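Task 17 of the worksheet. Students: predict the tertiary structure of the chain below and write it out as structure tokens. Keep your answer in the requested format; marks are given for formatting as well as content.
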Amino acid sequence: MELTKNIGEKDRKVRLAAGALIILWGVFAGSWLALVGVALIGTAFVRSCPAYSIMTMSTVEKQ
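Model answer:
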């Protein structure tokens, strides 16, 4: 099963940065919200977001 890439480069960079910040905050605060950061980084690496797929959205730039 191949995932459809629906995360563009700018979106990917934002997800990586936000995910890292949320993980740090979650770890220092002892919160389960660090898992949200892990999910953001995971979707950034695979370049596919399940929520975008449900909404038939894509931030991939058209060439």
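Marker's comment: Residues 6 and 56 are 9 Å apart (CA to CA). The chain has three helices and no strands.
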